[in-house]
């Protein structure tokens, strides 16, 4: 029988996660400032969390909620196919994925935060602080 640690935050992915944390994009860093320290409905997000072979930008394990901030490479034909495959894989574990573009993070930060807050509340994080 496989254990959760064979899929979630595997040791074999640790160096990749560390590298990605140290090289966050400006958009990821901007959003992380608003997600960390349970600022949204007391939901604890982690950055650069891995599930299987994929590293998620932000993930709340308790809610199984992933937040992805996508750059231009995600909108090529290859990127779209890869993201669909990735999303199907994550959904096997009951993970819900919210996707935003780098541009959206900068142009509509408040709207994104409201959508995240609504999603967190819908899934069941509790009352806002």
Give the secondary structure arrangement, pairings included.
Blueprint: H1 14-22, H2 26-35, E1 46-51, E2 54-60, E3 65-70, H3 77-91, E4 96-101, H4 102-107, H5 109-123
Parallel strand pairs: 3-4
Antiparallel strand pairs: 1-2, 2-3
Fold and architecture overview:
With 129 residues, the chain is α+β, with helices and mostly antiparallel strands. The protein has one domain: 3-Layer(aba) Sandwich (Endonuclease, Chain A), CATH 3.40.960.10. The chain contains five helices and four strands. A four-stranded mixed sheet has the order 1-2-3-4, sandwiched between helices. The protein is globular, with a radius of gyration of 14 Å. The mean pLDDT is 84.
Compact description:
This protein is an alpha+beta fold and 129 residues long.
CATH topology-level name: Endonuclease, Chain A
Distance between the termini: 40 Å
Poorly predicted segments: none
Structural class: alpha+beta
Count of folded domains: 1
Q: Quick one: biggest sheet?
A: 4 strands, mixed
């Amino acid at each position: 029988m496989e254990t959760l640690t064979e899929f979630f935050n595997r040791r074999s992915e640790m160096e990749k996660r560390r590298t990605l944390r140290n090289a966050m994009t400006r958009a990821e860093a901007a959003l992380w400032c608003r997600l960390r320290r349970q600022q949204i409905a007391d939901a604890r997000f982690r950055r650069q969390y891995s599930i299987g072979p994929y590293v998620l930008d932000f993930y709340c394990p308790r809610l199984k909620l992933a937040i992805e901030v996508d750059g231009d490479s995600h909108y090529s034909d290859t990127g779209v196919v890869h993201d669909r495959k990735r999303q199907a894989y994550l959904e096997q574990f009951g993970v819900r994925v919210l996707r935003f573009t780098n541009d959206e993070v900068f142009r509509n930060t408040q709207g994104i935060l409201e959508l995240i807050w609504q999603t967190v509340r819908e899934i069941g994080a509790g009352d806002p602080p």
